[in-house]
Amino acid sequence: MMAFIEVGYLVATFSFLAGLKFMSSPKSAKTGNLIAAMGMVLAVTLTFFAAITATVPYTNLIIMLLAIAVGTIIGKFLSDKVEMTGMPQLVSIFNATGGGCAMLLGVVEANQMDVTTAILGNQILLIAGLVTGAIAFTGSIIAERKLAGKVKDRRSKTVIFSARFLLVLMVLLPVLYFFGIIPIEFTAFMYVLATLAMVYGVLFVLPIGGADMPVVISLLNSITGIATALAGFVYGNKAMIAGGIFVGAAGILLTLLMCKAMNRSLMKVLAGTFKKSKNGAVEEDQDIKEISISETALSLSFAQKVAIVPGYGLAVAQAQHVCSQLQQLLEKRNVEVDYIIHPVAGRMPGHMNVLLAEANVDYSRLKEMDEGNENMQQYDTVLVLGANDVVNPAAENNPDSPVYGMPIIRAYESKQVIVLKRSMNKGYAGVQNELFGLDNCKILFGDAKTSLLEIVNQLKLI
Amino acid sequence: MDAPTFHQTTTTRLTMDFINQHIQEFYFVLFCVFIGIEVIANVPAILHTPLMSGANAISGVILVGAIIVMLRVPEDDYLNLTLGGIAVFLGTLNISGGFFVTGRMLKMFSPKK
Fold first, then answer.
1. Which among A153, A362, A389, A400 is annotated as catalytic?
2. Of A359, A354, A355, the residue nearest A327 (C-alpha)
3. How far apart are CA A385 and CA A314, in angstroms?
4. Phi, psi (5° rounding) for residue A445?
5. pTM for the full model?
6. Do B64 and A44 touch (CB under 8 A)?
7. Out of B35, B91, B102, whose CB is closest to A101?
């Protein structure tokens, strides 16, 4: 029976890996998700049946069955109900549940542990898993609240200092404890650390700015993975170790990717600091050239290749669907329409792609930044919708600018840029956009969604 | 009294025991890290959100641990039964929600005619 279960875990581990591998193409990704899910069901079912064959009290079994049933139903309900714009919040919630599970698992295990016979290494792993789980748990909850706009950034010195102090404490205390310097019971010590870690989770996410949320979500995801792997170590369960490590790797990879896309170091993100422009705001007079709706519609319909650069503003205005309508109209006129998507165009990695896919945009039209930049000269018109800093040439040629060094979509290299803007307000980084003053850039003032709708109406008439 | 030079201290011995017991797992972790990074680095940016929610669901494998721990809790230990029950609930929620929502997103990425 044991061998049977071990093989089951092996199959599950393989399914996780296969599932992730299948994610390398939109065509196979759905199958991959199914494979990973089936592997998971297998692992859980086998563990559960191992439970039934052992002499386990009925109370425990009933509680488990109830918890699993309720968890499955609520999970399905939440995932059916969520709006695609709310995806970062939902992923944060699910991440919190994973962290919470890791934490509680550590607490119960510590309560059950016979300290006199337990191996020191296992105790340390248990504590480490519990602490990481607790940080991911409260951290993800705060991240969710911030994404939902319910909690504001707190960047005060006290918060940042307390967070660092707690971090040091969480490293120092276990060292002192395991050398026998702190004479308290293991369970008591465990509760102290769990509490510290939960407070740390809150303090660590609080100072992080709204634009940096993609980094934090990725990081928290990775922390949950590490907590899972640590717990897997305690039980010597390879499916848990592998699953945890894969998630940890995915999280770290995305974290670094997001940092690079924003040209921010992870340390700066965590401290919530921003680069200020050096010599105040040197505002140059820009020669702004306005364009009207009908001129925009006309130039779009006579173009051969059009690129749309969407920003999160587009999603906030719920204009993805109008955007997709515009694309269909243009395609009927044999105009090729691509979307060039900056890695941070959204509230989590890849968010904008999901929003556009929801609006029925074919994924072959979704171009990554590098691909878009390579072919930029071929585009007759680039339409900038709700994006600002990610098309600012200052990032490449003005070392004094706060956005300097950030990889951008080089819209200015195309034949013509049309920016849809409500007013001349600045972008998230609060800097002037040098693109607007360039000769090939025109501005269409007005609400992005309304303007798009009017362009669509005009195109229908032409 | 034995000569202390011929005996390892307790801490070192425990550390040695621990390493001997877990050395296979260390190798395993090493390979997982590298394979994981290689596989995940190949995921295109357009699928990063489903990748994250899918990975999130995979980290729900912690549920296996929660079930194992529930097997050992005595029937009358209500505190730990409650905590363990909540752990099982949270783990299941993580798995079910994660895979369902990933599936829902990926359905939108299906090839269109």
1. A389
2. A359
3. 6
4. -80, 150
5. 0.89
6. yes
7. B91
